[in-house]
Design brief:
The complex is a heterodimer of chains A (656) and B (149). Chain A is of the alpha+beta class and 656 residues long. Chain A folds into 4 domains: 8-169, Beta-Lactamase (2-Layer Sandwich); 268-381, Beta-Lactamase (2-Layer Sandwich); 393-498; 499-649, Heat Shock Protein 90 (2-Layer Sandwich). Chain A has 14 helices and 18 strands. Chain A has helices at residues 8-63, 67-75, 146-200, 214-267, 286-292, 296-299, 304-307, 319-333, 383-387, 397-460, 466-497, 507-520, 542-559, 617-627; strands at residues 83-90, 95-99, 116-119, 123-132, 135-145, 271-275, 281-284, 337-338, 342-347, 353-366, 372-381, 502-506, 528-532, 537-541, 566-574, 578-585, 632-636, 642-649. In chain A, strands 6, 7, 8, 9, 10 and 11 form a 6-stranded antiparallel sheet that branches. A 5-stranded antiparallel sheet of chain A has the order 2-1-5-4-3. The radius of gyration of chain A is 67 Å and the shape is elongated. Chain B has a 5-stranded parallel sheet, sandwiched between helices. With 149 residues, chain B is α/β, with parallel strands linked by helices. Chain B is 40% helix and 14% strand. The chains are: A alpha+beta (656), B alpha/beta (149).
């Protein structure tokens, strides 16, 4: 059993009692050993005295060999019941008399031995010479039963020891009980206080100090610590309250500010929707709700086209899809997009569609990374103007009529634009299918012409005259040339149709790449001095702008072929709203009167024996630049080189 | 040398057939050519029905497939083949005049193994046919015969 988990009070008791018991036992043990030795010595001395007296008394009986006397003397030993046997031997060592009479002679020593004690397990024997005037008359033998005496002594001694022990332990118990209180009470009081504090978290409680010893000092330190905790706790609580109040105030301020902003936004005179880039509605102005006859609860969180589906009775109503296209344009370009006047069918709460005319503008809300974070869809309701119902404020009838006419015109022209958009789309589709046919069907006969010309040369080439063989060559070449023309035309057509992917394009890098690849091919082994200025980064379709640089730079390389060294310069300058890039060479040039023809399809100013080509490269350049909303032009003098210019509109951040 | 396996040519234009055969002959690839004149005939041949009901069960090493054909177009043949578990293993090379993006995209989407534009230049055409025929009919290891069942 370990003492560790026993209460301190019992621990002290056990300690005190154990100590007293051990001390008592040690003392008693030592004392007992000492008593035992003394007892043994005393017994031996008694035997010696007794044997001396008997020996002295026996001298006469031995001297006169009076056996009767001898037996009487020995029988006096009866008085001492511990003497169990005695014998007298004569001078010659023969047994003379013995005691008690009943004792068989065989149990006595046969002959006397020299004097001295002999102790065995339970008896003590002694031989005593019987001497008179230095004359040995015989020997006395005495046998003492020590077992009985020892046992009696032991019982007596142990009895006393037990009684003393009991008394001592009893007294020690009483003493310990009162003494342990002195030590355990203050500790228990301290422990109780600590427990109470940990249970109630009441740091204002103090432990009672009892005495001035170590426990007293501990109590004092404990109380001091409590005091500090109490102060800290109070300070902390005060600060928590302070912070909570501040937070609540800030929260209230934010909520109030938000509410103010929301109500400002919602009450602005205009119909707005705020959309996420996924076209989810996250806010709407009161005017918008009123105009669309919807409530905020039914709109917020829904997808725009889920909240405002296409008019089911009018499958061809282009409003919604126009809106979608416009929103997608804004998402793509990051610029505001004004839509033509739209006819919307607004579903009233009763489910009936009502015709409204709106003029919508979609504008982006850009984040720090210039990405569209929100879309603001603003609409102006022009239904009344379109229906020409509303009288204009003011009294000028003429003005009113004029305004109404203007509104009507606006609506009609927006309708016209939609119409021509439709036609344009149809034309584009037609062009697409046309170029598909060209690609498949127009190339096939050319392949056949060149194929069979090749087969003819192979089978009958040796029988042809030199002239005939030449003609065959022309057939082949013409077919191939037309193949190249068709391929170029298809590329040209594709440039006009394919969708533009607008990204920032580093023109410096584009020029460097193009020059490098030209240097490896067309311009190989030719002395060309390149002079390339710093060029800007513009917003455009990378693949298309690459085509522009490839066409213009390979032209420059081609038309400087007679020059040594050829000089080609690429540079740029800023205009008001656009940046102009030019490519200047010291090549053969052209006459300015043909400058406009240059950019037309299949327009060439040189014979193909001089400079090969299909006459489609510059047409492609113009088409691409036009699609980028830029301009193309050229300046030259025959023999003095040419400069080709193209411009690109500045992106909003480039404008100064 | 590896044995030459059968090439199937699906082409409606006689001139193209002549030129393709001439090109294959030039490279000694012409001994085992099957020609189908349109998509319907190609499917009949592959399914061994109609006038092809009695033909043996050999499978072409490759099909050279034109796109623009009367009746059933090349893309439709390709679609039906790739949807048929017994035919979808046969390699199909689109051999066509068109370089138009929609054709390219549609062909690969349907699972064409290659797409070759017939060049106008006859020599280039011969080279193209040689490489396509040589690769699919000689170099390429066909799927095991029993996997086509």
């Amino acid at each position: 059993m370990s003492l560790r988990n026993v209460p301190i009070r019992r621990k002290l008791m056990v300690m005190l009692l154990l100590t007293s018991a051990v001390v008592m036992l040690l003392m008693r043990g030592t004392f007992f050993a000492y008593e035992y030795v003394t007892f043994r010595q005393e017994t031996a001395r008694q035997l010696a005295t007794l044997s001396e007296i008997i020996a002295a008394n026996s001298t006469a009986a031995l001297a006169f060999a009076n056996e009767q006397d001898a037996r009487e003397i020995l029988s006096a030993l009866k008085a001492n019941r511990n003497v169990v046997a005695a014998a007298l031997y004569d001078r010659d060592g023969h047994l003379f008399a013995h005691y008690p009479d009943a004792l068989p002679v065989s149990e006595l020593p046969q002959s006397p031995r020299d004097g001295g004690f002999n102790a065995s397990h339970s008896k003590l024997t002694k031989f005593q010479n019987v001497v008179q005037r230095d004359l040995k008359l015989g020997t006395l033998y005495l046998e003492l039963d020590t077992g009985t005496i020892t046992r009696e002594w032991l019982y007596g001694s142990l009895g006393i020891a037990g009684a003393v022990m009991a008394l001592v332990i009893g007294v020690a118990f009483l003493l310990a009980r009162s003494l342990q209180r002195q030590v355990s009470l203050p500790i228990l009081a301290l422990a109780e206080t600590a427990q109470a504090i940990s249970e109630r978290k009441d740091y204002s409680v103090r432990a009672v100090k009892i005495g001035n010893d170590e426990v007293g000092r501990l109590t004092e330190a404990f109380n001091q610590m409590l005091g500090e905790i109490e102060t800290l706790n109070r300070d902390l609580e005060r600060r928590v309250v302070e912070r909570t109040n501040q937070l609540a105030a800030a929260n209230a301020e934010v909520t109030r500010g938000r509410a103010v902003f929301e109500s400002i936004f919602e009450s602005l005179p205009g119909s707005f929707l705020v959309l996420t880039p996924e076209l989810k509605i996250i806010a709407a102005s009161d005017a918008y709700l009123k105009a669309t006859m919807t409530t905020r609860e039914t709109l917020i969180g829904r997808e725009l086209f889920d909240a405002f589906p296409d008019n089911p009775s009018e499958v061809d109503a282009m409003g919604s899809s126009n809106l979608r296209a416009s929103l997608e344009r804004v998402l793509k370009t990051g610029a505001a997009d004004t839509m033509p006047i739209q006819k919307y069918d607004i579903r009233r709460p009763d489910g009936v569609f009502e015709e409204r005319y709106w003029s919508p503008v979609n504008s982006p809300l850009l984040g720090v990374d210039r990405r569209v974070e929100y879309l603001i869809h603003r609409v102006e309701d022009v239904t009344d103007f379109v229906h020409q119902r509303t009288p204009v404020n003011g009294d000028s009838t003429q003005l009113r009529i004029k305004m109404e006419q203007m509104q009507a015109e606006m609506f009609h022209s927006s309708q016209k634009i939609q119409e021509s958009n439709q036609q344009l789309r149809a034309a584009n589709e037609e062009l697409e299918s046309f170029s598909y046919s060209v690609s498949h069907d127009l190339r096939a006969p050319l392949r056949h012409i060149d194929g069979f010309a090749g087969l003819l040369r192979k089978s009958d080439g040796t029988q042809l005259s030199e002239k005939g063989s030449g003609y065959l060559g022309h057939i082949s070449n013409s077919a191939k040339q037309m193949g190249v023309l068709i391929d170029d035309l298809l590329v040209f057509s594709r440039m006009g149709r394919s969708e533009m992917k607008m990204t920032p394009v580093n023109l410096q890098q584009l020029t460097a790449d193009t020059v490098q690849s030209l240097q490896r091919q067309e311009a190989k082994d030719r002395p060309i001095v390149w002079k390339i200025e710093a060029l800007p980064v513009v917003l455009g379709d990378h693949a298309m702008l690459r085509q522009v640089f490839v066409n213009l730079l390979s032209n420059a390389v081609k038309y400087t072929r007679p020059k040594n060294p050829a000089e080609i310069e690429v540079g740029c300058f800023d205009e008001d709203k656009e940046v102009v890039i030019f490519i200047r060479d010291n090549g053969v040039g052209f006459e300015m009167q043909y400058a406009q023809k240059l950019f037309g399809v299949f327009q060439r100013l040189h014979r193909s024996e001089e400079f090969e080509g299909t006459g489609i490269g510059l047409a492609n350049v113009r088409r691409i630049i036009t699609r980028h909303l830029g301009r193309t032009w050229a300046e030259s003098m025959p023999g003095a080189g040419a400069t080709f210019y193209f411009s690109l509109p500045k992106s909003p951040e480039q404008k100064t | 040398m590896k044995t030459l396996r059968r090439i199937m040519l699906v082409e409606d234009n006689l001139n193209d057939i002549d030129l393709t055969l001439a090109a294959l002959e030039e490279h000694h690839l012409a001994n085992e050519i099957v020609v189908a004149r349109d998509g319907a005939e190609a499917l009949d041949y592959l399914h061994r029905r109609g006038k092809f009901a009695d033909r043996g069960d050999e499978v072409p090493a490759v099909i050279l497939l034109d796109i623009k054909m009367p009746k059933v177009s090349g893309l439709e043949v390709l679609r039906q083949m790739k949807a048929d578990s017994t035919l979808r293993h046969i390699p199909v090379v689109m051999l066509t005049s068109s370089r138009e993006e929609p054709d390219l995209a549609a062909s690969y989407k349907l699972g064409a193994n290659a797409y070759v534009v017939k060049p106008v230049d006859f020599q280039q055409f011969v080279d193209a046919v040689k490489q396509v025929g040589g690769f699919w009919a000689v170099i390429n290891e066909p799927p095991p015969h029993n996997s086509l069942k």
